[in-house]
Specification:
Order of helices and strands: HHHH
Organism: Psychrobacter pasteurii
Distance between the termini: 48 Å
Pfam family, one: NikA-like
Protein name: Mobilization protein MbeC
Number of domains: 2
Structural class: mainly alpha
Low-confidence stretches: none
Mean pLDDT: 83
Number of helices: 4
Shape: elongated
């Protein structure tokens, strides 16, 4: 009878068990290429346990989105104060919409390029 049961499992417990897998040179290279920012063992463990990998976010994109959000807040404050939407506000909203469109398109293109670069390695 095994001493491992759901009642005595603790996910914070020290790791004392080992699992070995064999891979060829190509598979090892692929694992290392796909793994980002941690050891292969940690990455494989997380994948096997259902941890969803999170891609790092471009800090410049976050800053630009923050500026756009700030502009939207200013416009909202103006509209709420003046109780009307004038031509200048409409122009600013259109400029923000265009900025958002460009950021989304450039982010999609960067993701596609990154995927192509990773695939070509």
């Amino acid at each position: 009878m095994s001493d491992i049961s759901p009642t005595n499992l603790d996910k914070r417990a020290k790791r004392t068990r080992e699992i070995s897998i064999r891979v060829n040179d190509y598979e090892l290279a692929e694992l290392k290429k796909r793994n980002r920012g941690s050891t292969v063992a940690s990455w494989l463990r997380d994948l096997a346990l259902g941890v969803t990998p999170v891609k790092p976010v471009d800090p410049d994109l976050v800053r630009q989105l923050g500026r756009i959000g700030s502009n939207l807040n200013q416009l909202t404050r103006h509209v709420n104060t003046e109780r009307q939407v004038d031509a200048q506000v409409l122009h600013e909203i259109e400029a923000i919409r265009e900025q958002m469109h460009l950021l989304i398109e450039s982010s999609i293109e960067a993701s596609k390029k990154s995927a192509r670069d990773n695939h070509d390695r």
